[in-house]
Amino acid sequence: MRMKLNRIDLNLLVGLDALLSERSVSRAAKQLSVGQPAMSGTLSRLRKLFDDPLLVRDGSSMTLTPLAESLTYLVHDILGSIETLVTVRAPFDAASDTRTFTIHASDYVTLVLLRSFVRAAAGEAPNVRINIAPPQTNYFGPLLEARADLVIIPREIVGHVGTAYASAPLFTDRHVCVVAADHPVVGETMSREQFSAFPHLSATGGIPPSFAETQFDEISLPFRIEASTTSYVAAPFLLEGTEMVAVLYERLARALHRSAGIRLLEPPVSLAPITEMMYWHPRHSDDPGHRWLRHGIRRLAEQL
């Protein structure tokens, strides 16, 4: 029998969302700025509504029941849709709006593109806050959970999973080999033999392996990783005084080659380029504020 909607209090869904994400009555209460007894009461009502304990004690912590696990993304999506329902037609005035937009992107994208957007937004929308966070290994979880407005990531990394979301291309880039400007051996070119012989610095942006490393494996080109970093921007600065080779995106390497003291070389093999894509949940497609965000980023990407 279908549950009657008049039995559901929207505040219960908000409480359920907090309980599922925090897995703790006290932390959920703190998230919603309510007392712990009130949150315990909400959990009791939810248990009765779903006829399931939802949270069960496991040693010193709480864990979700299978039903609660299955509800996590669904509840996030429902609350996100409700938020869109009441705000999608609300006017957006960049000069006075106080919204916060969260973008998940690598430090490479931040350096090449988003720093210009943050600067432009500060003048156009002085009360809007732009929050930039690193990409997650589950790529689009932040969109599903309404923790991010945009995810910017190469189409080649996410593959067909990205087709479930609204998207727009931003810019393309290619790979280059990077070494310290004073590298004692490498000249103007690098052979396959040198590429495999020298130690490598792996830069993954927090999602290993890198797209370039995946291609090396596919063509059976051996390479030995001596050091690694999750930061694309830090990678060029780690090469000084070493014989390491890094394979980085060209736009990043050219932006930092003087300050980092590096040289750019053509890779000894052909590597596929990447296309940085901007992804968002379809529920935000008609949101005026979200359109302002996407348009501003695309406008600057077109100038790269």
Structure description:
It is built from eleven helices and twelve strands. It folds into three domains: 5-87, Arc Repressor Mutant, subunit A, CATH 1.10.10; 100-172 and 275-301, D-Maltodextrin-Binding Protein, domain 2 (3-Layer(aba) Sandwich), CATH 3.40.190.10; 175-272, D-Maltodextrin-Binding Protein, domain 2 (3-Layer(aba) Sandwich). The longest helix is centred in the first third of the chain and has 22 residues, at 66-87. It has helices at residues 10-22, 25-32, 36-50, 66-87, 107-124, 141-144, 155-158, 192-197, 211-218, 250-260, 288-301; strands at residues 55-58, 61-64, 100-104, 129-133, 150-154, 166-173, 175-180, 199-203, 224-229, 245-249, 262-265, 274-280. The chain is α/β, with parallel strands linked by helices and 304 residues long.
The N- to C-terminal Cα distance equals 57 Å
Strand order of the largest sheet: 4-3-5-12-6
Radius of gyration: 24 Å
Write the H/E string, N to C. HHHEEHEHEHEHEEHEHEEHEEH
**Largest sheet entry:** 5 strands, mixed
- What is the tally of beta strands? 12
Global structural class? alpha/beta
| CATH topology (level 3) name of the largest domain | D-Maltodextrin-Binding Protein, domain 2
CATH top level of the largest domain is Alpha Beta
CATH superfamily of the largest domain: Periplasmic binding protein-like II
Q: How large is the share of residues in beta strands? A: 15-25%
Give the proportion of residues in helices: 40-55%
